[in-house]
Design a protein that fits this description.
43% of the residues lie in helices and 19% in strands. It has helices at 2-10, 17-29, 34-41, 50-62, 103-112, 130-134, and strands at residues 66-71, 74-80, 86-90, 96-99, 124-127. The relative contact order is 0.13. The protein binds zinc ion (2 copies).
């Protein structure tokens, strides 16, 4: 907990109890949507609303402490900002995992093959996770 307070302060964010709880939940689960964060946090804070979580996440994104992961055909999930990586998305359970691919390599290759000036990459690979594959 002390650790999360320091992390928030390193990003110039006031360490409010809700922000500490959001940080804790993202550290534990990896990727969560606003609704999932609400489910995790509502036991702790009785006056919590989706709007409050949304507001906090937005401030945490402005300070680059939290990043949004945009997903095809499902709502965005949020994660604590890490080194650049790609994501795996399960079509069945809708869980999201990190996959360590070097996006700089992909951007470099893409730049060689086009006249486009590429600024960023958001790569989501979709399929079935091991659990869902074994459930048939
Ligand atoms: Zn799955
Ligand atoms: Zn991630």
């Amino acid at each position: 907990m002390e650790n999360y307070i320091n992390q928030l302060r390193n990003y110039h964010l006031k360490a409010t109890p809700q922000r500490i709880a959001i940080t804790e939940a993202l550290a534990m689960y990896g990727h969560l949507s606003i609704e999932q964060l609400y489910e995790v946090l509502k036991q702790k804070f009785n006056s919590l609303s989706l709007a409050t979580i949304y507001k906090n996440i937005n401030i945490m994104m402005e300070n680059a402490f939290v990043s949004e992961v945009k997903l095809p055909e499902q709502k965005s999930v949020y994660e604590l900002t890490k080194a650049s990586h790609a994501h795996l998305q399960c079509k069945k359970c809708h869980n999201v995992w990190d996959i360590h691919l070097n996006l700089d390599d992909i951007i470099q290759n893409a730049s060689k093959n086009s006249t486009f000036e590429i600024e960023s990459a958001n790569l989501v690979l979709s399929g079935l996770c091991e659990n869902c594959r074994n459930e048939k």
